[in-house]
Specification:
By secondary structure, the chain is α+β, with helices and mostly antiparallel strands. The protein contains 8 helices and 12 strands.
């Protein structure tokens, strides 16, 4: 068995598994872990015993130590430096008239390097930008282009539901979202109503999609002819969650709301067949 510590690196960012080794760790502890180019500070969210053969756990993913006063001081100074580089990068982008939007600047721990995340419509020639920033700060500078969903995740914000964005609060990975999901749930297909602040389809469309699909299978389809104890007619509307349909009776323009249990399933399956 191996002791695994779940580490969060941003206030509400992704949580990754790290080998806790024999360190005495508790939830909320600030720790230094191995990172791409050195060490990075994170917060312990959970410590547990687990099988040593965890596919997501790489050999270099280890917790090195709890943070010291020097680590906390360095982290504070790093934050100030990132803001300084961010402002300088904005000014250089404007000066060079580059069609790009700067999202975030991140300092790589323990080495003199900055990573600048940006969005753009296409490919950008940022060689002069990198050269100028490297000269200004005497450091290595890397530019990384990201998509609109990752931009929203980094920037954060409030969704149309009035809550903090899912991507910046608890989602670790993005799943494929399709218009079909909105259609299956009977939602408006107006892009302004089913798109998030990133301009892409809202991540929450996937949350209840499976349930909607299961419930929808129980209901007769639109246009299907059905029979109840009191009437015969065609289905004009569905209420998937409440398991009800609206039926337009033969020789009448008035629609009537009918619970699923009142519909004779064996009858509408036969009547509904097209000749």
């Amino acid at each position: 068995m191996k002791r695994i510590a779940k580490i969060r690196f941003q206030k509400k960012g992704a949580i990754l598994d790290y080998d806790a080794r024999d360190l005495d760790l508790e939830i909320g502890d600030k720790v230094m872990v191995e990172w791409e180019d050195g060490l990075k500070m994170g917060t312990v969210t959970e410590v547990k015993e687990s099988d040593s053969s965890i596919p997501s756990l790489k050999s270099h993913q280890r917790v090195i130590r709890k943070t010291t006063e020097a680590d906390l001081d360095y982290e504070s100074r790093k934050g100030h430096k990132e803001k300084e580089v961010y402002q300088a990068c904005l000014e250089r982008i404007k000066e060079l008239e580059l069609p790009m939007k700067l999202v975030k600047v991140e300092s790589i721990p323990n080495i003199n390097k900055f990573t600048c995340y940006f969005t753009a419509e296409g490919r950008i020639d940022f060689r002069n930008l990198v050269k100028n920033l490297a000269s200004d700060f005497h450091a290595r500078v890397e530019m990384k282009q990201i998509g609109s969903r990752n931009r929203a995740k980094m920037a954060g914000g409030i969704g149309r539901c009035g809550r903090e964005l899912c991507c910046s609060s608890f989602l670790h990975d993005f799943e494929p979202i399709t218009v079909r999901m909105a259609k299956d749930q009977g939602l408006s297909l107006d892009p302004t109503k089913i798109s998030g602040v990133c301009g892409r389809l809202m991540c929450c469309l996937i949350y209840e999609h499976k349930t909607y699909c299961e419930y929808k299978k129980r209901l007769p389809k639109y246009g299907k002819k059905v029979v109840t104890e009191l009437l015969t007619g065609k289905v004009t509307k569905q209420d998937i969650l409440r398991q009800k349909v609206w039926i337009k009776p033969d020789n009448s323009s008035k629609e009537i709301e009918v619970p699923l249990e009142e519909i004779k399933k064996e009858s509408f399956l036969k009547i509904g067949k097209k000749k």
